Amino acid sequence: MKAIYPALLAGAVLLFCNHSEAQRRRRAPNTNDTISSNYVPSAAFAPLYYTSNGNDYHSANGSPGPKYWQNRVDYTIKANLDTVGKTISASENITYTNNSPGALPFVWLQVDQNTYKEDARSNFPTGVAATQHTNGYEFESVSLVQNGKAEKAVYVVSDTRMQIRLPNKVAANGGKVNIVIKYHYVIPGNFGNRTDYTDTKNGKIYEIAQWFPRMCVYDDTRGWDTLPFLGSGEFYLEYGDIDYSVTVPWDMIVAGSGELVNPQQVLTAKQIARLQQARNSDKTVMIRSLDEVTQASSRPVNKGTLTWHFKMLNTRDVAFGASKAYIWDAARVNLPKGKKSLAMSVYPEESAGEKAWGRSTEYLKGAMEHFSEKWFTYPYPVAINEAGSAGGMEYPGIVFDGIRDKGLGLFYVTAHEIGHNWFPMIVGSDERRFAWMDEGFNTFIDVYASDAFNKGEYAPKRDGEYAPGGGNPADEIIPTIIDPKAPTIMTAADAISERYRHPIAYFKPAFGLILLREQILGKERFDYAFKYYINNWAYKHPTPDDFFRSMENGAGEDLSWFWKGWFYNNWKLDLAIIDAKYVDSKDVKKGMQITVANKEQMAMPFTVEVKYKDGSKQRMQVPVETWLQNKAVTLSFPTTQEVTDVYIDPDAALPDVKRANNHFVVK
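Now predict its structure.
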């Protein structure tokens, strides 16, 4: 035993020497450390990005947890449109089901028409108050049916919210309460923005939305979500079935969300036959032509009123348009696995023509088929594009677009607004808090819809929502990134000023997903993860973390550095070539040493390209892990001949704030 000790000691000394030598090698001065840079690796890649763990309601993998719950609301509404008084009067019966694990002593409703009142909170956020007003909702009665007992409700209205204080709590795990509300309100004119009426040659067009009190969401995230409707932040609603009837003068057409269930009472035999033809036609079929608009024979009766009855299942809202001026056409929509839907357009004479709304149904059908094939099958029997003065507003199964829209502009707005049926109508995120989860996602899917439609007729997408200057999106987003006053993507919707609304809620999140798909994850991995998110959260209520976790788990990447830099901050990216030289100046085939610095705080993977003397090119992909420890890195590039130029990000696909230093001339 004693004889072993000297050997062990010698081994220990040798091990210590080797370890010390390794330490000296690791700690050797790095000339790259002297390169000036604002990049801090520890900030970009700090661990513990998520502030809370997954739980029984929202799993760590981004999916709904095993105990996820969601309340339900079903509506039956009978409404009358008075074209003389410009009013809606209605009776609404709400069946509210409490699936939460706790009893509810009160419930909250959204009463959005109150946003048009003179003292509404929506007059104040922008600093410019509205100049035209209505009295908002005028409630005739509010009553309850609970446990078989009917009684008058005790309620309080606060701006665009109504609280009903219940005599008995709504029981947990399936308890129900019925709320019956009778009300009326004056329809806002053109100042309504999302809901209005406007004049046309052959009669007024009414666009009716946010037209009935709707239940606020009660969820596991914050309980009752009672943010007021201030105008910019849109909607967060529960799912259920909506059965609604609208009584209008005999000469009006009603185009509504869902399926018309009494066509025999409100359409002519010819119109019913044409609709059946359209259900079997990929070409647009005219249901009511321009000539027929002014013909009394285009209506089944010529006096009094007609009641149009619609039903829409598993939806969060409904809206409708009504006018005697509507031209009406339709075509079949071909969905995956042999399913079908129907695309329809209604528009006035002013919008007619093949260069305008005559192609609306073609645009609507094309977008629906693309989104269904690529992401998630459209679930409803009908989709409608309606022409009015709202000029770009979305509701389940119906969109309101502009009377004067035509050509490229009409295609873009049609694709974008019907795309909202995927985000947030199917994937039910909270628009009022997180505008990017519907506007950004929808703009993202629009980019590829533009590429796909009619072999790229309107590609690439370049409009007010995405690269409005018509150039390279990676360049056009830079002014927003470097603007010290620009808010971040995670800013509350109503806190984003109009100047930044499109850049921050639409463009930047959409381009962020483009970067994820085309530069960071690759198309196959991104698409799988994105569809994992969509399928898990269809008809449910995801949070931002659910999206972030879904993408990370579905794609198998820790993307916290990206969420942090792109969504929670406006970190700049500036990659720069510092030097490029041969390993052996006498033998160019021994390769080249290329030094690249990250000059700002955003990290990204990137491409290095060398251009050879004969004009050929060679590329190398460099992963984001390059920046885990380094502000600058020297890459070994295996060259095969003399190099004339070196480029990083040769396709200008990254939002690099200083492209001039992305090119290096080899001397």
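The two ends are 66 Å apart (CA to CA).
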